Amino acid sequence: MDKKVTRIGVLTSGGDAPGMNAAIRAVVRTGIYNGLEVFGIMRGYQGLLENDIVKMESRSVANIIQRGGTILKTARCKIFHTAEGRQQAYDVLKGQGINGLVVIGGDGSFRGAVEFSREHDIPVIGIAGTIDKDIHGTDFTIGFDTAVNTAVEAIDKIRDTADAHDRLFIVEVMGRDAGYIALHSGIGTGAENILIPEHKTDIDNLISSLQEKERRKKLVNIIVVAEGEKYGGANEVARAVKERMPHIETRVCILGHIQRGGAPTSMDRLIASRMGYHAVECLLEGRHNVFVGILNNKMNYVPLDKVHKKKGIINDEWMKIVKILAS
Ligand code: F6P
Question: What is the CATH number of domain 7-143+264-306?
Answer without folding.
Answer: 3.40.50.450
